[in-house]
Design a protein that fits this description.
- Helix 1 runs antiparallel to helix 4.
- This protein has a three-stranded antiparallel sheet.
- The longest helix has 39 residues.
- It is built from five helices and three strands.
- Helices cover 70% and strands 12% of the residues.
- By secondary structure, it is an alpha+beta fold.
- Strand 2 and strand 3 form a beta hairpin.
């Protein structure tokens, strides 16, 4: 995943309505576009614009079935960000928390030995 791909995913996730779309598609895979659009208090065009951003980021895939265009969540880009970026940062914090834990335990032992 390139930095540009990651930026597209973060940009897509930055809007509340787009995150709602992902939540809906996670719960209801294959939902038709018209049904999805009815769940929002904005125009169908606005929903289509959000879908375009999500599709460009690779977070939503669609398939035409007759007159319907069905939508699915594609969580692969989220997993790639987890693997490439979040794991590195959480590892950093995990090491710091572990260091704090050992320091607190050492201080508690020292205090207990002194009493």
């Amino acid at each position: 995943m390139t930095d540009q791909d990651m930026s597209a995913v973060f940009n897509a996730l930055s809007h509340e309505s787009r995150r709602q779309v992902l939540d809906i598609l996670k719960a209801e895979p294959g939902l038709p576009v018209g049904e999805l659009a009815r769940r929002f208090d904005v125009s169908r065009i606005a929903v289509m614009n959000h879908l375009a951003v999500l599709e460009q980021a690779g977070l939503v895939v669609s398939e035409k079935q007759g007159r319907l265009r069905r939508l699915w969540l594609n969580a692969a880009p989220l997993q790639m960000i987890q693997d490439r970026w979040l794991d590195q940062h959480t590892e950093h914090f995990a090491r710091r928390i572990t260091g704090l834990k050992f320091a607190a335990e050492a201080a508690a032992r020292k205090e207990q030995d002194e009493t």
